[in-house]
């Protein structure tokens, strides 16, 4: 954790980064449920729900990892001016 970032701020930052993935999954699942025929909701949505939640899990882990990597990178001061390779 960045030393100067309180835990609540870190949680909020990551939650904001995850929001688009959650919204996309929520609407995709809602469309599946709305389009299922009466009496066939589980049968017609079970595979789609499983697949979408697996995609959400994967994309959430990717976003969480990216946020943590960016946090770690920000904690290091560059050893040379921008645009120049370090030796």
Strand count, sense and barrel status of the largest sheet are:
none
Question: What's the β-strand tally?
Answer: 0
Low-confidence stretches: none
Helix content: over 70%
Structure description:
- By secondary structure, this protein is mainly alpha-helical.
- It has 2 helices and no strands.
- Helix 1 runs antiparallel to helix 2.
- The longest helix is centred in the middle third of the chain and has 34 residues, at 41-74.
- It is elongated, with a radius of gyration of 20 Å.
- The model has no long low-confidence stretch (mean pLDDT 88).
Topology:
Layout: H1 7-35, H2 41-74
Helix pairs in contact: 1-2
Features:
single chain; 87 residues; mainly alpha; 2 helices; 72% helix
Q: What would a concise description of this structure say?
A:
This protein is mostly helical and 87 residues long.
């Amino acid at each position: 954790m960045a030393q100067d970032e309180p835990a609540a701020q870190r949680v909020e930052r990551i939650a904001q980064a995850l929001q688009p993935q959650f919204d996309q999954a929520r609407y995709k699942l809602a469309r599946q449920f709305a389009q299922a025929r009466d009496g066939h909701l589980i049968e017609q949505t079970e595979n789609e729900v499983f697949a979408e939640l697996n995609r959400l899990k994967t994309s959430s882990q990717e976003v969480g990892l990216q946020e943590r990597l960016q946090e770690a990178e920000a904690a290091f001061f560059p050893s040379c001016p921008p645009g120049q390779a370090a030796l």
